[in-house]
Each structure stands twice: as structure tokens, then as C-alpha cells.
């Protein structure tokens, strides 16, 4: 990690990050989802739990996700499955043998399968997040296996910065739900675009391909111009039931959300939480290390709130 990132005091990281993390417990995160639902904003819950150092940590993450399934399925606010928060998981949260370090991700597939089984029993949608390029083949292979086993409630994520993503569209199980993002992981130029504008242009291009192939598209960006371009290109042609717009919890886009609701579009916010603030701070330090410009974005959003 960049030494300068390590030197940022934890209280300062927490101060700037607090609006973007739904607390340090599952109970607090569920309340955030309920509050969003009251404003007609859907949600997807994600536990901040990466860089697993012990098997006990991996086991605790699996246990927490199983608790998350029970929690969202049992809340009266989410009695309608269509309004129920979905869950997002990262495969690296369940292994001490990460692929980016030359490992085999031992235990990750079994954990994801156990969560998928329980989520299907309780009518909870699940999304397997995409991590760095080292995880792409492993993740796509697992998604294919899960769908072959009948887990059509499990969705995928594709990052448009990667050059391989256009070919990966052909590897998706038929009809799988797909979240499109540019991706936050910094990748070398030989495997990825380095400029954001062409990444976003790819989002528009790939979204239309996915819609034409019958996929449900989750278009994930805060760039208002690209959100509008996507909706303009998709709404009349495919209808509002074939896609949704996804944004990060805490990023101020109230006017855009209202506008999209008026156009009949579904909006969902990605709601991360941790089991403790030290875990959330560790996650945010890693994100700052991968994407240093994030600090300026956070500061800009904080000033916007003043």
C-alpha cells in the first residue's frame, strides 16, 4: 500500500467515509435499506470484508451472509420480494488463498454456493461482484455452474475497462442479470483502458448488446450524462422493466433519482456496511490505494453537502 495512504489518520478516514458506509452492524445497514425503500429506492447490501488472513475470518463472513439472507427476508418492510434488498458478495471474502497472490481461491466457490442455496430458498437476489482481472475467469466459470444448477437468481458484474469484457459477454449464462460498471481496480494498459470516457462509452455499447440478448441490465454509474444517454437509448425500445440504474449509497444524486423515477425507472443504491469501523476503514484505505482520485471525489461530495 502507498505509504501516504497508511499515514492518513483513521479518524479522518472515518469522518470522510461515514456518509458512504451504512454503519458497523447488520442492523444499521438494514435500517438504511428500509429508509431508502421509503423513498422508493431499492438497495443491495454488501459486507466490507476483504483481505482474509485466517479461516476464522472467512467462516465469519459466510456466517454473516447467511444471517443477511434471513434478515432481509424476515423484515416486514421487505415482505414483497420485488422490494427486498439484494445481496452482493466478493469471492475473495471467503478464502485465505487469493488468486491475485497465485492461490486457488480454496473455499470461495463452496461459500458462494451455500449463500446462493439459502438465498434461493428465501427469494433473495444475489450478485457475485467482479474483482481484479485475476478473478475474472474463476468468477465467470462459477456463475455458469450456479446457473446450470438452477440458481437463476444470481447475477453477474462486468467491468468495461477490461479489453476482454466484449468477449466475456458471450460467456454469460442466458438471461443472467448483469451489473455493468467501469470498475475501480487499477489494471495495466495491456489488459484495460486507462481513460474513463471510453470505459463509459463501452458501458453504453455493452448495455445495448445485453438488452438485445435478453439480459436484465443494472447500469452502474454516477455520471448523469451517461445515465440519461442510457435511458434515452433503452426506455422506449425495451421498457423500464428490463433495466435499472445503480448508484453508491451516500453520493448526492437526489435530483437525478427524482428525474429517473418520473421516467418510470428503477433506482438501486449499493449499500456497504462492516462489522466494525476498523474493518470499514481498512477497506477504504485499500480503495484509496487502488484509486487515489477517490479522495478528491469524496471531498467534492462532502463539500456538495455543506
Plain-language structure description:
- The protein is an alpha/beta fold.
- The chain has helices spanning 3-7, 10-17, 26-38, 55-74, 108-121, 136-148, 165-168, 196-212, 224-238, 254-262, 277-290, 294-305; strands spanning 42-47, 86-89, 126-128, 154-159, 178-181, 217-220, 243-248, 266-273.
- The chain is built from twelve helices and eight strands.
- An eight-stranded parallel beta barrel has the order 1-2-3-4-5-6-7-8, surrounded by seven helices.
- α8 packs parallel to α9 (224-238).
Furnish the topology, listing elements before pairings:
Blueprint: H1 3-7, H2 10-17, H3 26-38, E1 42-47, H4 55-74, E2 86-89, H5 108-121, E3 126-128, H6 136-148, E4 154-159, H7 165-168, E5 178-181, H8 196-212, E6 217-220, H9 224-238, E7 243-248, H10 254-262, E8 266-273, H11 277-290, H12 294-305
Helix pairs in contact: 2-11, 4-5, 8-9
Considering DSSP H and I runs of 4 or more, what fraction of the residues is helical? 40-55%
Question: What is the CATH C level class of the largest domain, in words?
Answer: Alpha Beta
Specify the biggest β-sheet: 8 strands, parallel, barrel
Kindly report the CATH topology of the largest domain. TIM Barrel
Mean pLDDT: 91
**DSSP strand (E) fraction?**
5-15%
Which ranges are low-confidence, i.e. pLDDT below 50, for 5 or more consecutive residues? none
What is the total number of structural domains? 2
Query: N- to C-terminal separation?
Result: 31 Å
Shape: globular
CATH architecture of the largest domain: Alpha-Beta Barrel
Amino acid at each position: 500500500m502507498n505509504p501516504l495512504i497508511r499515514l492518513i489518520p483513521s479518524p479522518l478516514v472515518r469522518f470522510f467515509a461515514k456518509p458512504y458506509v451504512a454503519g458497523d452492524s447488520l442492523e444499521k445497514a438494514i435500517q438504511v435499506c428500509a429508509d431508502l425503500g421509503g423513498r422508493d429506492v431499492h438497495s443491495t447490501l454488501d459486507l466490507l470484508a476483504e483481505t482474509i488472513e485466517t479461516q476464522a475470518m472467512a467462516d465469519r463472513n459466510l456466517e454473516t451472509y447467511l444471517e443477511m439472507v434471513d434478515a432481509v427476508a424476515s423484515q416486514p418492510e421487505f415482505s414483497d420480494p420485488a422490494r427486498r434488498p439484494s445481496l452482493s458478495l466478493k469471492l475473495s471474502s471467503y478464502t485465505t488463498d487469493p488468486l491475485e497472490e497465485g492461490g486457488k481461491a480454496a473455499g470461495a466457490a463452496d461459500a458462494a454456493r451455500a449463500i446462493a442455496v439459502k438465498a434461493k430458498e428465501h427469494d433473495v437476489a444475489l450478485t457475485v461482484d467482479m474483482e481484479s482481472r485475476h478473478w475474472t475467469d474463476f468468477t465467470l466459470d462459477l456463475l455458469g455452474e450456479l446457473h446450470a444448477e438452477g440458481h437463476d437468481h444470481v447475477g453477474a458484474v462486468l467491468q468495461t475497462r477490461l479489453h476482454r469484457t466484449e468477449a466475456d459477454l458471450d460467456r454469460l449464462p442466458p438471461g443472467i442479470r448483469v451489473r455493468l460498471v467501469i470498475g475501480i481496480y487499477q489494471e495495466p494498459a495491456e489488459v484495460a483502458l486507462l481513460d474513463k470516457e471510453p470505459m463509459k462509452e463501452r458501458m453504453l455499447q455493452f448495455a445495448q448488446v445485453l438488452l438485445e440478448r435478453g439480459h436484465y441490465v443494472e447500469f452502474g454509474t454516477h455520471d448523469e450524462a451517461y445515465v440519461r444517454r442510457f435511458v434515452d437509448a433503452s426506455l422506449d425500445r425495451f421498457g423500464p422493466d428490463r433495466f435499472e440504474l445503480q448508484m453508491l449509497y451516500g453520493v448526492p444524486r437526489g435530483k437525478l433519482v427524482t428525474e429517473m423515477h418520473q421516467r418510470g425507472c428503477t433506482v438501486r443504491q449499493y449499500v456497504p456496511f462492516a462489522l466494525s469501523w476498523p474493518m470499514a476503514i481498512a477497506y477504504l484505505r485499500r480503495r484509496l490505494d487502488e484509486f487515489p482520485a477517490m479522495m478528491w471525489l469524496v471531498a467534492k461530495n462532502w463539500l456538495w453537502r455543506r
